[in-house]
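Hello again, I could really use a second opinion on something today. I've been staring at a protein lately and its backbone has me curious. Please have a think about how the structure follows from the sequence. I owe you a coffee for this, so here goes:
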Amino acid sequence: MNYIIIVAGGKGLRMGSELPKQFLPIGGKPVLMHTIERFCEYDEDIKIILVLPKDQQGTWLELCQKHSFNIEHQIADGGETRFESSKNGLSLIPEGDDGLVGFHDGVRPFVSVDTIKRCYDEAQRTCAAAPVIPITDSLREMEKNGNTKSVQRANYCSVQTPQVFNIAMVKMAFAQPYQESFTDDATVMEQFGCKISLVEGNRENIKITTPLDLKLAEILVNEK
């Protein structure tokens, strides 16, 4: 059985909005609904776990009723950190279940079905996969003495989600104590000693965090 854990804990501060960014409308319905639908397009039988702060869960249920959104999913409580939120979502997967579990940002509604498939297929083969895209901007490294130096952008890539792992392995990885270096779920697995395989992501798989992102999202959803 395969799972997807969709983590949505944003507060919308950078949006300048009182409404959490995952609830902001694009194309007439909340961002988060578009995100969930993408995974159903990939696999209508995938088990969906949504991680939301407790104080946002009532709003989500009201939005589901308002939009007649009836895709089946479980809800886990969000934590103080991404690590804790992901761990809470993972706890809803019964012990002994095999298969794969992905972790995805709730505000990435334009992940392609092809990207999702590449992640799950590669994780089936290697136990851990994450989608990436090439960096097109020039990069400079900031040094502690205030100096900067150019670095070869070909040596770097931008990491997206979903990040997909073997269930048994990721459960063991999340038994580790939290570290500040855990910037995403792949870093948790890496600290556990697991090699992360990289697959091709898609440029449209943006993380909606600013008003400009929201404008771009409206363009993308209208094109779709």
